[in-house]
Write a structure and sequence with these properties.
single chain; alpha/beta; Rossmann fold; globular; binds iron/sulfur cluster
């Protein structure tokens, strides 16, 4: 009997969950049945009664673990199914398997472990020793090794996009779609999960696995023909930067797609030649990590060997080629203070970034920064204190509580103030007050506005407009699952 797998995901947010969409595509190709459901505005009980899934799968990031645990416990009380959790949180915090109601966790790439699981259940074979899975059965835990990484990404079936529309029906009409051109990253920045993947998989993770331009462009073409695609988002860690790949991609993309796109880049990998090719292909905006304005901190604590001069020069090249920049910045840094965050802000002002996105540093499990924070007493190691989103509070300890509050407040005003740099003095003064809601509202409104209208401008759906209005009104989503 083919297995019935239901993937449950809380929110589709601004991008679809490609990881589970890849898994779903492979399962479907092999004759299994997959379903997707969101959690808001639907009756999960009714959905599960109808589908009767053999397996329920969740893909989770740190900060969401309790939400999904509450949900899974609630479902387990009513139904019988195997629960499996994958994604960054169980990968790097496999102790998660010890939680009640968790049957299996998947570490690392999930396509083939999940296929094995379904096939073995189908054939009534023993599931305890499937590579990448940690399986809990009859009170015993089976911790299995990892299998090698998928080497040829072109061989994977394209992500199951139809399934993702069940998560959010309005998404079918959405003008942007996400794609992946690579997996892996050769660098080891201490705050990023790629370095943790290198610990897990060794050097094979460092070898950036790149799809062929033709497979990638054909996937985009298929989506363009079947949806109202207006804007392409490449969500891979670092967009391919090598000239040969870019030349081939640029030619094909222009001919077959011709739509603006957004991608992630690294300042030290770009130059006049590759930026020109990207711009020529249709690159409209990029996401580039600045992370910290202090070169020494960036190098020693973040293990990110990029100079301010390289960042400034690359911003100039990008702007000269008409490409807008969304920069990634981290604030509330371990051992840091408001002055350090202001230094980062100044670098953004100098580089005339279109949207300087600030995130509050989170010590995600098994990253270098997690270790650094624990060893230096900045973090107590309780990952449940990591908030579900890095836009609110810092889970770190600071000796001076007032300074922590100033940094958390400055985070909310970081991007807006960069628009009016002379306002820095007055903003700095206001950061000492307990005005969280007011600051958060400014942050969310400006974020939503810049993201939707500056960085990815395409015709918006009523959902986008609702999000911008909700941001203005201070309406929030919850980070715990609430039973109806
Ligand atoms: C695109 C993206 C997003 C998108 C879509 C997220 C999503 N649900 O997929 C958006 C913008 C919405 C987003 C939001 C957030 N993201 Co994000 N995001 C990414 C990004 C850039 C790409 C994800 C991706 O598609 N990867 C490629 C696919 C193939 O890999 P994958 O998702 O890991 O999936 C594979 C395996 O993990 C596994 N797997 C995954 N799910 C499941 C489920 C089952 C059942 C099984 C068996 C296996 C399995 O199999 C998959 C296929 O091989 C990654 C960085 C990266 N380059 O991966 C960060 C990343 C995943 N995000 C991260 C974070 C922190 C967040 C946020 C919490 C940020 C915030 N708001 O504060 C939110 C949480 C969103 C959520 N609802 O869970 C962190 C996670 C760190 C951690 N330890 O949890 C990452 C790793 C970046 C980082 N900081 O290092 N994100
Ligand atoms: S932050 Fe960027 S460059 Fe550094 S390891 Fe992560 S993906 Fe690679």
């Amino acid at each position: 009997m083919p297995q019935k797998v239901l993937f449950i995901i809380k929110d589709i947010e601004s991008a679809e969950p490609l990881g589970i969409m890849y898994i779903s595509a492979l399962l479907k190709k092999n004759g299994h049945l997959t379903y997707f459901s969101g959690t808001g505005g639907v009756d999960l009980t009714e959905i599960i009664e109808k589908i009767k899934p053999d397996i329920i799968g969740y893909g989770i990031c740190t900060g969401f673990q309790n939400y999904y645990l509450d949900l899974n416990r609630h479902l387990k009380q009513q139904f019988s199914f195997i629960s499996i959790f994958g994604g960054p949180h169980p990968t790097f915090f496999p102790e998660f398997i010890e939680e009640d109601s968790v049957d299996i966790i998947c570490r690392g790439e999930g396509e083939f472990p999940m296929l094995d699981l379904c096939n073995y259940l189908d054939e009534e074979k023993d599931i305890r020793f499937i590579k990448n899975l940690w399986v809990k059965q009859n009170g015993k835990l089976y911790k299995n090794d990892l299998r090698p990484l998928i080497t040829d990404l072109d061989e994977l079936p394209w992500p199951d996009r139809e399934g993702s529309y069940d998560l959010d029906r309005s998404f079918r009409e959405y003008g942007a779609r996400s794609f992946l051109s690579t997996r892996g990253c050769p660098f080891e920045c201490s705050y990023c999960f790629n370095a943790s993947y290198i610990d897990l998989y060794g050097d094979s993770w460092k070898k950036c696995r790149v799809r062929s331009p033709s497979d990638l462009v054909n996937e985009i073409l298929h989506v363009k023909m079947t949806t109202p695609l207006k804007f392409v988002q490449f969500r891979c860690s670092t967009f391919p930067w090598k000239i040969e790949w870019l030349k081939e991609f640029s030619d094909l993309y222009k001919k077959k797609i011709g739509l603006p796109f957004y991608c992630h880049v690294r300042a030290d990998l770009l130059n006049e030649e590759n930026v020109k090719l990207m711009a020529d292909a249709g690159c409209y905006s990029v996401n580039m990590g600045f992370e910290c304005g202090d070169e020494n901190y960036r190098k020693t604590v973040f293990n990110r060997h990029i100079t301010n001069e390289q960042i400034e020069k690359t911003c100039e090249i990008l702007h000269r080629n008409g490409i807008r920049i969304l920069s990634d910045n981290m604030v509330c840094l371990p051992g840091g203070n408001l002055d350090l965050d202001i230094k980062t802000w100044r670098l953004n002002v100098k580089c005339k970034v279109e949207y300087p996105l600030a995130m509050i540093l989170q010590p995600y499990p098994r990253t270098g920064i997690d270790k650094y924070c624990r060893e230096n007493g900045f973090f107590n190691g309780n990952y449940d204190e990591i908030y579900y989103n890095y836009y609110f509070y810092s889970p770190l300890n600071f000796k001076d509580k007032q300074e922590k509050r100033k940094m958390e407040n400055f985070h909310k005003l970081f991007a807006f103030t960069a628009e009016f740099p002379p306002a820095l003095r007055i903003v700095r003064y206001f950061c000492r007050f307990r005005l969280n809601l007011f600051f958060i509202t400014i942050f969310r409104f400006w974020y939503s506005w810049c993201y939707h209208y500056r960085i990815m401008p395409f015709k918006k759906t009523s959902k986008d407009r609702r999000e911008t209005i909700e941001a203005l009104l201070g309406i929030y989503k919850t980070d715990r699952y609430e039973k109806n």
